[in-house]
Amino acid sequence: MSLSDGPWSPGHIYQEIVGYGKTKHRVNVVEELQEFWQMKAARGASLKNGALVIYESVPSATPPYVCFVTLPGGSCFGSYGVCPTKAEARRSAARIALMNSVYNEQPSRKITQEFIEGAVADASHGYGGQRNEAENGTGIGAYRFMLVQSLGKTMLEFQELMTVFQLLHWNGSLKAMRERQCSRQEVVQHYSHRALDDDMRSQMALDWIAREQEIPGIIARELNLAERDLEQARLAGRELRFPKEKKDILTLASSQVGGPMD
After folding, report:
1. Strand, helix or coil at 203?
2. Could you read off the pLDDT of 212-249 as tens digits, one per residue?
3. 191 CA to centre of own chain
4. According to the 3-state scheme, what is the secondary structure of the chain?
5. Cα-atom radius of gyration of the chain, to the nearest Å?
6. Backbone angles phi and psi of 70, in degrees to 5
7. How far is residue 166's CA from residue 172's CA, in Å, rounded to a whole number?
8. Residues of the chain with pLDDT > 70: what percent?
9. pLDDT at 23 over 60
10. Alpha-carbon distance 133 to 124, whole Å?
11. Element (H or E) spanning 8, and its range?
């Protein structure tokens, strides 16, 4: 079945998101989301961690309830609006994730050479200088390099790669690697093939624990900011991997320096 037909079409999924189609044949979005990714795996999609969709409910004794869903590639989405039950929060997260998964399959979501040229031009304009001058800077040049490495991939796949480098920048790791005179290409090539796993999260948490020794209270401040950023992004229906990873890393660091902080 074509992704542009039937229950896989973006229009159909959008109707599910906004509440149309409430009939006895209504799509079970939790099952459909899992089946979608199993279908992608069966068609040869490169999924390092398999096709399993992972749900995570935020602990709460009373509504409203919040649920996050992480897709096999790593992208993360959250429940939208006010959910009176945990089951509805799970369905809400699945709806957002399924709509984005389907939309990501459209040809317009592929990284093409034309897209790269336009994206780099826009970034260079924002940099405030001439394009060649901007690309000589590590930021724009690295951005182009990562786009080229992602040629032919989808926007979500590129976002998954970008999340790793966003975290490395936020954590101070990129600055440390520059000080060790690692080249941009070396850094990008290394981390382009490294999964964002528990080992990387633990190392970043240790970095924040070390900062806490120098600047008491920094973990609590950063954690409050990360929680706020995550909630704002969730309510806006955006992809959540970066803010959620920040929160998880800081929560891990907090637990290792004496428990949750105020």
Report:
1. helix
2. 999 999 999 999 999 999 999 999 999 999 999 999 99
3. 16
4. CCCCCHHHCHHHHHHHHHCCCCCCCCCCHHHHHHHHHHHHHHCCCCCCCCCCCEEEECCCCCCCCCEEEECCCCCEEECCCCCCCHHHHHHHHHHHHHHHHHHCCCHHHECCHHHHHHHHHHHHHHHCCCHHHHHHCHHHHHHHHHHHHCCCCEHHHHHHHHHHHHHHHHHCHHHHHHHCCCCHHHHHHHHHCCCCCHHHHHHHHHHHHHHHHHCCCHHHHHHHHHHHHHHHHHHCCCCCHHHHHHHHHHHHHHHCCCCCCC
5. 20
6. -110, 125
7. 10
8. 82
9. no
10. 9
11. none
CB 79 within 8 Å of CB 93 = yes
Mean pLDDT on 18-36: 71
For residues 9 and 206, give the distance between their C-alpha atoms in angstroms, rounded to a whole number. Answer: 44
Residue 159 has pLDDT above 50, yes or no: yes
Q: How far apart are CA 216 and CA 209, in angstroms?
A: 10
Q: Under a CB-based contact definition with an 8 Å cutoff, are residues 80 and 237 in contact?
A: yes
Residue 1 host element (H or E): none
Predicted model pTM = 0.80
Mean pLDDT of 170-175: 88
- Pairwise CA distance, residues 34 & 48, whole Å: 16
Cβ atoms of 254 and 217 within 8 Å: the answer is: no
Taking the C-alpha atoms of residue 140 and residue 203, their distance in angstroms, rounded to an integer, is 27
Instruction: Decide if 163 contacts 241 (C-beta within 8 A).
Output: yes
Q: For Cα atoms 73, 110, 93, give the angle at the middle one, nearest 5 degrees.
A: 40
